[in-house]
Amino acid sequence: MPLHVAGAQLPVTGDVDANIAAIERAIANAAQAGAEILLTPEGSLSGYTPAFDREAVTTGLAHVTSRARAAGVGLALGTCYEEPDGLCYNQIRFYNRDGTYLGFHSKQLRCGSLDAVPQGEINDYAAAPLRVFTFGAYTVGGLICNDLWANPECTPMDDPHLTQALARQGAGVIFHAVNGGRNGSEWSQVAWHYHEANLRMRARAGKLWIVTVDNCAPETLPSSAPSGVVAPDGSWACRVAPQGEQFFDAFVGV
Questions:
Q1: Is the Cβ–Cβ distance between 47 and 19 less than 8 Å?
Q2: pTM of the prediction?
Q3: For 210-228, what is each residue's pLDDT tens digit?
Q4: What kind of fold does domain 3-252 have according to CATH?
């Protein structure tokens, strides 16, 4: 049986209440489409920052997971979150359609400067071992932004080819949550093409479906990468407009 997935290209900000409202819109859209699982962008609940309001995010997480459970929609929810171990992780949190929490993927290729002592989010977030999750009949994995494209300008870490690593662990579908920077310059356009090429080539190399969504704030600029679904042959099964809030759904595994 194919897996019916949904994705939401949403505005991600530092306003947790606004983020919750955007995720609620995405859940309603996914439920109306009959999708089984919804992917949201990197940091879509908390904002893309380790300095988020812990209490607001904890309360918001309970709210959006309750709404998804009531709608019968599983989640691949992008958020930063502080775990009981006291460490902050940039995560995709996976939930079954009945609300059962399956666990989280934490960003591996965290961004940082190329200095002798790197600066940036590489110092802000912890990382847990790469793993896969069972969602219905499917083995799925998560990747966050640079985890997939390993931009050499964005991290001092070596590329471990995480799509291939997840394929070896048995994943057939990867949920890829993105929150990329852009400013409308020539290099933003170069990065766009680099991101799209990596999505297509890594899907083809790993024989994987990749479901991917980006942040769309500010909505005056195109997103940093395409949002949609890439098939195992590297073709786009579906994709949405690169600017503004967008929703899509598709069947994967067919």
A1: yes
A2: 0.97
A3: 999 999 999 999 999 999 9
A4: Nitrilase/N-carbamoyl-D-aminoacid amidohydrolase (3.60.110)
